[in-house]
Amino acid sequence: MSKARELAELGAVYNSGALSNRNIIINGAMQVAQRGTSSTGVGASNNVYPTCDRWEIETGSSAGRATMTQESDGPDGFANSIKLACTTADTSIAADEVFRLQQVIEAQNLQSLAKGTSSAKQFTLSFYVKGNAAATYNVEIYDLDNTRHICASFNVTTSWNRISLTFAGDTTGAINDDNGGGFQVGIYLHEGSNYTSGTLATSWASVSNANRSDSNNTSFFDSTSRTFFITGVQLEVGDTATDFEHRSFGQELALCQRYCVDLTPTSAPYIPATGAVPHNNTTVAVAHVALPVTMRAAPSVSITTASDYSIYDGSSFTCNAVATNGLSNTGGGINFGVASGLTAREAVGIYTNGDKRTLLLAEL
Q1: Residue 18 pLDDT
Q2: Both 50 and 139 in a single domain?
Q3: What is the Cβ-side half-sphere exposure of residue 93, based on CA atoms within 13 angstroms?
Q4: How far apart (Å, rounded) are the C-alpha atoms in residues 183 and 147?
Q5: Exposed / middle / buried, residue 117 (Cβ in 10 Å: 0-12, 13-18, 19+)
Q6: What phi, psi does 108 have (nearest 5°)?
Q7: CATH number of 219's domain
Q8: Quick one: pLDDT at residue 19?
Q9: Which of 237, 247, 265, 254 is nearest to 350 (CA)?
Q10: Span 274-293, mean pLDDT?
């Protein structure tokens, strides 16, 4: 290649913005795990984020269970991965069973695809995978705004391999320019005939459940020796998988905090609050929380149980309710309630009874 052509092509890449902010996936290198680094019994509950931020488990009907961990294992250049390890097998697969690892992408982050226009662009999904044995799974790109999808199969070996899947641009169905879900990028690891009885949708089409996966796929729950590792997930405009775009931990954490903010104390047993925490009556104290980033939407509070928290003003009061109080996507209040006994307008301390997880959630 001539030097002039090389410089021209480099200039085209630069002008398209492809040298930075290429990766639409958040936490693709599995660096951030605000909820914790290990979770057991995965598969029992639907729409949960067991470990690494932004990576959700979608499940239904299966008796199969797994442990999910943020693992210190990856191909060269990657310190972390998600590992799923089957702990309870399920070889009697009912029609409606499904087990899927997925990330839902905010719609306004997908506008560069020009989906639904005559200029709709190809895009490429790439990632590194391995397992305990050879396996075949599939990816589904689900357009949530228009109920359309496109799918592709991939193979797993016992060594780290990079998978690259290029999808056609879709001239049908524009994605909303808003903070709702745009694409659901899902990896099918186990599914029943409701999802496999048709033909895998390898071209854009209206969603048909029967075409969302493939009957030739491996079931992750076929044996308790089955494992699945993944890292380096990247979705980008174009027909080529470029080198993975590594972001700093601080950048990745800030992107994740748009959807989940961890208020769990790391040392002293107090939740973070700005200034004093006054009572607004004899049964409620309000913690005023400043958020590190603007969240996607006004968050909800996620806790295990209200009785994990106590209020102290010389005496200790066990909480019986925790709820938001004017909490917006930039900050606000959290109410901590007790049965009685607080003194109005007297500052107090709020603390957890041990290391209890306190999350603000604005997930898609």
Answers
A1: 56
A2: yes
A3: 22
A4: 10
A5: middle
A6: -70, -10
A7: 2.60.120.260
A8: 67
A9: 265
A10: 86
- What is the residue type of 62? S
107 φψ region: left (φ > 0), alpha (ψ -120 to 50), beta (else): alpha
Q: How far apart are CA 233 and CA 243, in angstroms?
A: 11
Residue 121 is given by DSSP the state P
Q: Is residue 10 scored above 50 in pLDDT?
A: no
Question: Are 142 and 207 a contacting pair, CB within 8 Å?
Answer: yes
20 closest CA partner among 260, 248, 259, 230: 248
Can you give the pLDDT at residue 12? Answer: 47
232 neighbors 127 (Cβ within 8 angstroms): yes
What angle is formed at CA 335 by the lines to CA 325 and CA 256, rounded to 5 degrees?
70
* Last-in-domain residue among 196, 228, 257: 257
Whole-number mean pLDDT of the chain? Answer: 93
Domain with 220, as residue range(s), is 22-257
Q: How far apart are CA 110 and CA 146, in angstroms?
A: 14
Residue 123 lies in a domain: yes
64 CB neighbour count, 10 Å cutoff: 26
Confidence class for position 273, pLDDT limits 50, 70, 90: confident
Structure tokens at 252: 């990745």
Lowest mean pLDDT among 6-15, 18-27, 100-109: 6-15
- DSSP, residue by residue, 291-357: -SS--SSPPEEE-S-GGGEEEESSSEEE-SEEEEEEEETTEEEEEEE-SS---TT--BEEEESSS--
pLDDT digits (tens, 9 = 90+) for 140-189: 999 999 999 999 999 999 999 999 999 999 999 999 999 999 999 999 99
